[in-house]
Amino acid sequence: MDKFRCTFDRMVDCGVIAVLRTDSPGQLVSTASALAEGGIVSVEVTMTTPGALDVVREAVRELKGGAIIGVGSVLDAQTARAAILAGAEFVVSPILDPEMILLVNRYGKVSIPGAFTPTEILEAWEAGADAVKIFPASVGGPDYLKAIKGPLPQVKLVPTGGVTLENAGEFIKAGAEMIAAGGNLAPPKEINAGQFTAITDRARKFVEAVAAARSR
């Protein structure tokens, strides 16, 4: 199995992407380790994080494959390339930029651009996206996702923004390939306070919610 397929399959098997913005590489590594202990291996470092590329390099070096480190809030192909060279295995964006999708595909990494309308979603998919981020998922909720999957069943969708432990399973049952969660999964106050056991426990509950929804 090629590295790309292994990475993407691991992400899908888990079913949850953790979206993190931390103040230091050390915090990111500790949080990612806590999430991995709870079963979440996909960690998205937002490019709004101070020194984001340094954070990615440090996390990749320290975690040694124990977590899949990617980047989010990417707005252009140049930033995507810099992140990939820093070690990112997947690139997430809140927007649709075909040039960025092409660049990420060229490097053999996982591309998850953002879209919302049916036209944008199909355009992202046909441009080569591996999955499409539905953002903000809080607008429309699981019902909107289900409606999109009707005419576009082939598109792998990743709702982001407003995903909680309470509705994670509903998004999966509506047709989501994976879900992405940030503060509702790893609250900044817990990260700053070093409350990593609480983050591990919540990660485990998110994974269990996804697994339960998939089994129905």
Task: Describe this structure as you would to a colleague.
It is a single chain. The strands form three sheets. A four-stranded parallel sheet has the order 3-2-1-9. The protein is built from ten helices and nine strands. It has 216 residues and is of the alpha/beta class. Helix 4 runs parallel beside helix 5. It has helices spanning 3-14, 25-37, 52-63, 77-86, 98-106, 118-126, 141-149, 168-173, 188-193, 196-214, and strands at residues 16-20, 42-46, 68-72, 90-92, 110-112, 114-115, 132-134, 157-159, 179-181. Helix content is 49%, strand content 15%.
Reported for the largest beta sheet, the result is: 4 strands, parallel
- Distance between the terminal alpha carbons, to the nearest Å? 29 Å
**Could you tell me the strand content as a percent range?**
5-15%
Please report the total strand number as a whole number: 9
Percent helix: 40-55%
Cross-sheet strand order for the largest sheet: 3-2-1-9
Q: Helical segment tally?
A: 10
Rg result: 16 Å
Query: Which stretches of 5+ consecutive residues score pLDDT under 50?
Result: none
Shape: globular
Write down the overall mean pLDDT.
96
Coarse structural class: alpha/beta
Succession of helices and strands: HEHEHEHEHEEHEHEHEHH
